[in-house]
Design goal:
There is one protein chain. The chain has a single domain, classed as Glutaredoxin (3-Layer(aba) Sandwich). 57% of the residues lie in helices and 9% in strands. It contains ten helices and four strands, in the order βααβαααααααββα. The two termini are 22 Å apart.
Length: 201
């Protein structure tokens, strides 16, 4: 029987999602698993869970910004805190779901392309002009990408994915589900590895 895919919820404005996106595929492959990528908006999950972004609290902000960069260095992933952070990323997420549904596996490739652009190069994903340039870099027609993120059908698709994530118990990102076992956060990597190696603990 084929092992179940690892479900991976991420947000394009989440630095920990970015770091996790750089290791989850290789880790899954080592254990004969695939990854089911799921773009969501943290704002929706925060609202449902009555939470706020850590950087919205003055006492947490400086530590969080420091930890983003330290965690990336620890993982060997290039990251420079963007000047504009956090940002709305619904347009990139809508394109993700369009690619995911229409073009098979390219959704995850788009996700990595955008996450790397934002966190390693400082490209503002909330700026439609910069996002169109990214789409062209990725090999998409930028006007087609723009039409997608303005299309009510893909707006609804993202909304339904946010609702499904909340219904599944997702309240942050990155969030993983492995064999119905939830793991929240990039720092749960050792537990995820242990679970994949030897099963439940």
């Amino acid at each position: 029987m084929q092992p179940r895919a690892i479900q991976f919820w991420f947000d394009f404005s989440s630095p920990y999602s970015y770091i996790a996106s750089e290791w989850i595929e290789a880790l899954a492959a080592r254990h004969g698993r695939t990854v089911q990528w799921k773009a969501i908006l943290l704002g929706a999950t925060f609202q449902a869970a009555e939470l706020k972004s850590p950087v919205s609290h003055p006492i947490k902000r400086e530590y969080s910004l420091h930890d983003f960069e330290r965690s990336a260095r620890f993982a060997g992933v290039p990251l420079k805190n963007p000047e504009k952070f956090p940002i709305p990323t619904q347009n990139a997420a809508r394109v993700f779901w369009w690619l995911n549904d229409k073009r098979d596996a390219t959704g995850s490739h788009w996700a990595r392309h955008c996450l790397r652009a934002y966190f390693a190069r400082g490209v503002d994903l909330s700026d439609t002009g910069q996002l169109k340039v990214l789409a062209a870099e990725f090999g998409l027609d930028p006007h087609e990408a723009e039409a997608v993120w303005n299309d009510p059908a893909w707006k609804l698709r993202l909304k339904s994915e946010n609702e499904a994530a909340i219904a599944a118990g997702v309240f942050g990102a990155p969030f993983f589900m492995i064999d119905n076992e939830p793991f929240w956060g990039n720092d749960r990597r050792p537990q995820i590895e242990r679970w994949l190696e030897r099963g439940p603990f």
